[in-house]
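Z., the sequence and structure:
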Amino acid sequence: MASAQNKSSEHKMALLKMQKQKEILEQSKSSLQNIVVLQTERIGNLEEKIGIVADERKELCERLNKAERELSAMTKEKIGIVADEQKELYERLNKAERELSAMTNKLAYFSNLKVKFIKFENKWGYVADTFFAEQKKIIHDNMFDGKVGSLYVNPDGKLEYKASESAK
């Protein structure tokens, strides 16, 4: 009987042990289910954040592309303006070169005449051939000095001659 009681007691102990293991397994199952629910919520939150980040990234890419297009358009516009200004400057330069050539031709023509023309700033005047021959000197302050006298532009804008002492 002792052995039957011993077996019965072992059997009860085994049942209690199994029941405790069953309770532990049920608690573990419940904990795992709670963990799965929490992880599912976290995954949902992460997916939502990833979606927001993706939307923001897409919006930033669109803004960057728009800014690049605007910059490209502005650059092309500025290049066009500069090209137009450069063309205008070349035209003005060509016109000035033509005018200079025409003036040079006129000066060459006048140098062959008995009356010579010289320019003081924006004023033109003429002097006799003997005086003009010395005009290689530099003109300063609307005045040209030579051996035979001085030429200058008076305040009225007229060319005047003042004879030197040696010419008097």
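Residues 126-138 have pLDDT under 50 and may be disordered. The longest helix spans residues 2-111.

Let me know what you think.
H.
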